[in-house]
Amino acid sequence: MAKLHVPNLVCVQQVCSRYECEEDGVDCVRCGTRKHSFGENPVGDLLSYLTEPRPRANKIVATAHNVKAFDLHSIFNRAIVLKWKPELIMNGLKIMCMKMEHLVI
Ligand SMILES: [Zn+2]
Questions:
Q1: What distance in Å separates the CA atoms of residue 58 and residue 63, rounded to the nearest whole number?
Q2: How far, in Å, from the CA of 81 to the mean position of ligand 1?
């Protein structure tokens, strides 16, 4: 039986196209707080955060550091529960890229 990977912490650092947004430790005038962590319901809270209304952005691109390809299965499973229809780029059983709604992960 395959083991199900369950993330217990997700940390996010966001940037936008504004120069100030790329300075470490400085919150952005447009984005607000740039660093977030989700621990209680990490995948659900991450997706809720990524799908918050952002009037200045019509597309969100999320890249993952050390995600490894199987970790995206947790996000994929949550997307299915939400009745989203993710488009996947696979390498064997590994998810290399996932597009859904206005998100690219
Ligand atoms: Zn910003």
A1: 17
A2: 30
